[in-house]
Amino acid sequence: MHKNRNGHAPARAERLEKARTGIAGFDEVTNGGVPKGRPTIVCGGPGCGKTMFAVEFLVRGATQYNEPGVLMTFEETSEEMTKNVASLGFDLKGLAARKKLVLEYVRIEPAEIHETGEYDLEGLFIRLQHAVDKIGAKRVVLDTVEAIFSGFGNTGVLRAEIRRLFRWLKDRGLTTVVTAEKGDGNLTRFGLEEYVSDCVIFLDHRVTDQLSTRRMRVVKYRGASHIADEIPFLIDERGFSVLPSSSMTLDHAVSNERVSSGVKDLDDMLEGKGFYRGSSVLVSGTAGSGKSTLAAHFAQQTCRGGERCLYVAFEESAAQAMRNMRSVGLDLQRQARRGLLRFEAWRPTQSGLEMHLLQIHKLVEQHNPAAVIIDPLTSLMVGNINQTHSMLMRLIDFLKTRGITGFFTALTSGRNKEIEETDVGISSLIDTWIFARDVESNGERNRCIHVLKSRGMANSNQVREFLMSKDGIRLLPVYVGGGAVLTGSARLSQEARERAEGVLRQQTKEEQRRSLEGKRNALEAQIEAMRSEFAQEEARISVAAKQDDQRERDLSQDMLEMGSLRGGARQGKPGGRNGRVSDEHGS
Amino acid sequence: MTTKKAKANANGKANGRLMELRLYVAGQTPKSLAALANLKKICSEHLEGQYKLYVIDLMKTPQLAQNDQILAIPTLVRKLPQPIRKIIGDLSDQNKVLVGLNLLETEGVE
Question: CB-based contacts of A334: which residues, under 8 Å, 6+ apart?
């Protein structure tokens, strides 16, 4: 086989050409689909979905890539096959009528066949060739070719013919999907993978905890890098879809654009602008802490801006949620009618985690929203924590690469410190984490909210009280008193108490001021009194001193006068002086 | 040989109708040619005048392969009498062909 392929290789381009299957997610996982012009084996146990894969490969090829196909079935008749895939919305009869598809049923009835001597399976080749020629087919499905082993005895011939068949398909450049049953210890029961060296895909269907999950693995993909992990896939009324893997790199484009949370007060806590577009927001909190209401506000806000929003609810039906949100003044019904809001609700127990995520993927593909709300995300956190983590990472990555703002709520149980820790598993994936909780005191429960983190912005570190009314959500300014954040009536009473205390303090201060003033006045009066007393004293003393001087002078005058009176010789002179002295006496 | 022939008469022409045989071949391959030669020999020996034979070359008329669900080449189909029987290969084992055409009881062989 190798030699043979090499014989054709030089004419082909260096790179392996791929044919898009059109199967959601598969082409991403395989970087472009299955090898073009070559056979691919799709194997797995019964009911694993290999036929669905093969049929969808053909139908998409015929309808989306203008590559007509031949569906050669060995186990189901064309009628059965048509009926089986009609539930996926595939109209094989219609495609056949439009010459996009040829249904060729190969019946093998061992009971009516007798072998006598040498033979080959040229009849199969002729029929295939005829079918391909009829519509110019580019794609072929053989489902399940190994059925020929049950009809013919000479396995040596059969193996040689299968080998020839694969080469024949490759020589004609037919992109082929060959389905095969899983074998014990082997990928396929008859070891077909031996003949197809290019691409082997293994499908698995398992049930864990009563939940079925389907997984796909690219076992082999020659000449192309591929993801070797098991990848979940889903088969539903729209066909086969593979959950695209998370991108290995963290290189999604970021937006500087901000989107409002729909609650002005909350925006205020986030630099007054809200979240970054395309970021992931988590609101975690205990039951009844207002998470869904916040989510609904965000949904309303998104739709009001004319953008689409996908709301996935796991706890409430659409009707119930819309009724409830009307009580806080949100008319989500209207947004739904406008076609902007897509509200999807289903039970979390309905299927495994992968199925939920796939469902969300598909809804995103269909609705193309600017924001996705998942309420609550914790419903997806079932089973193995590692699995959960990687799944959620895929989801968040997926939203981010598309620039979709993800708004998730998380229910935390208990009201202890561990609340914040339980979510650590996903906190690293979250850009803005808002924490809502209720505070119980004084016989009432009140809601509080704070921003635990918000990457790339100076978010408020305050705890705010969260009020819900018929007009929506309001966040009251924080009230810190007595060393604790107070809410509800406790906050009100504390406010009143502090107001009263303030008045009292004011009064005391006034009084003190007045008494001080009084003291100062008194003191000043005293000083004044002493000063005047001193002045009087001073005046008195100086008068006394003058009187003493006068007295002395008078005395000496008297003695002079007496002397002159006794002498008489100096009469004239003392007479003049006499008059003056008497003047002085008068003064 | 005579007993075999008697058997053939009993089964092959029980109700007086001809056995209808179709030999599917693909071109003039050695296997196809061998099959045709072997078949003609068997018919002349065992079914003289009691059969109709059509040789269908799928290289020329591939659309005829589906009706009789032909995979192996060469394939001899006994269309009549019912039920349909298919004998694949170059028909080199005459006994097996006779058994396949229900012209010979299996117990009678060997």
Answer: none
Q: Is B21 helix (H, G, I), strand (E, B) or coil?
A: strand
Look up the CATH superfamily of B17-105: Glutaredoxin (3.40.30.10)
What's the pLDDT score for residue A14? 54
Instruction: Report the residue of chain A nearest B56, measured CA to CA.
Output: A123
CB contact under 8 A, B72 and A120: yes
Beta bridge partners of B56: B24
> Is B83 within 8 Å of A115 when comparing Cβ atoms?
no
**Cβ of B67 under 8 Å from any chain A Cβ?**
no
The confidence score (pLDDT) of residue A465 equals 82
Going by C-alpha positions, the residue among A224, A208, A205, A225 that lies closest to residue A216 is: A205
B56 touches chain A (CB under 8 A): no
To the nearest whole angstrom, how far is the Cα of A110 from the nearest Cα of chain B? 10
> Looking at residue A478, what is its pLDDT?
63
Tell me if A247 is assigned to some domain: no
A82: exposed, middle or buried (Cβ count in 10 Å: 0-12, 13-18, 19+): buried
- The segments of chain A whose pLDDT lies below 50 read 1-13, 416-419, 572-584, 586-587
Q: Quick check: A439 and A487 in contact, CB under 8 A?
A: yes
Q: Interhelix angle for A122-135 vs A155-171, to 10°? A: 20
d(CA A244, CA A81): 28
**Residue of chain B with shortest Cα separation from A104:** B66
Q: Taking residues B59-71, report their average pLDDT.
A: 91
Residue A39 is predicted with a pLDDT of 92
Instruction: Tell me the residues of A at the B interface, defined by beta carbons under 8 Å apart.
Output: 104, 106-109, 112-124, 126-127, 129-130, 148, 151-152
pLDDT tens digits, residue range A477-519? 766 655 566 677 777 777 788 888 888 888 888 999 999 999 9
Q: Tell whether the model's pLDDT for residue B86 goes beyond 70.
A: yes
Which pLDDT score is estimated for A42? 92
Q: How far is B92 from chain A (nearest CA, A)?
A: 6
Which domain CATH number covers A27?
Answer: 3.40.50.300
- The answer for residues whose C-beta is within 8 angstroms of residue A191's C-beta and 6 or more apart is A183
For chain A, what's the residue count? 587
A24 DSSP β-pair partners: A241
Q: Which residues have CB under 8 Å from B37's CB, separation 6+?
A: none
Q: What is the pLDDT of residue B105?
A: 63
How many domains does one find in chain A? 3
pLDDT of residue A584: 47
Of A106, A113, A127, the CB nearest to B86: A113
* H-only helix segments in A309-384: 318-326, 332-337, 353-367
Percent helix, strand and coil across chain B, each to the nearest 5: 35, 25, 40
Distance CA A270, CA A259 (A): 11
Domain ranges of chain B: 17-105
Enter the DSSP assignment of A247.
P
Q: Please report whether residue A9 resides in a domain.
A: yes
A164 & A286 share domain? no
**DSSP code at position B73:** B
**pTM of the shown model:** 0.65
Q: Is A567 helix (H, G, I), strand (E, B) or coil?
A: helix
Tell me what ipTM this predicted complex has: 0.84
What span, in angstroms and rounded, lies between the C-alpha atoms of A242 and A52?
Answer: 13
Tell me what pLDDT residue A235 has: 82
What 3-state class would DSSP assign to A268? Answer: helix
